[in-house]
Amino acid sequence: MSNKNSIRYHRVGDYLIPNLMLPPEETNMRLGKWGMMHKDYLLKHKPITVAIMTAEGRFWRYLADVDAQANEMFDLLVEQMKKKEGITEQLKAQNQLEWIQRINIIQQRSSEVVTKEIIYV
Predict the structure, then answer these.
(1) I need a labelling partner for 14 at 20 to 30 A (CA). Which of 55, 67, 78, 113 fits?
(2) How large is the C-alpha radius of gyration of the chain?
(3) Residue 4 lies in a domain
(4) Burial (CB count <10 Å: 0-12, 13-18, 19+), residue 54
């Protein structure tokens, strides 16, 4: 069935239900750590935003962009902190345990910054 506005309907019992189609969206994108964290945050704290973006067909592309942006920021922060704190390949060759400890601390600090600045906003 259809009406004069060219919206197509189908009958369910006594009701006419519009045949609505969402715009196609690539939902099989692989998201990394940051994209998945942001998705979980949005689903829990901003469900209306998720519904709107899904209806517009841009939710998964948005998550992929957030994931890429967060990865780039994380990598940049790690490199900047390594340089500032003098963590070099020479230290890695001389004392691997210290190098690993210091890199882990830097990665944790970088992760906190990315989470605060990009993921939970």
Answers:
(1) 55
(2) 23
(3) no
(4) middle
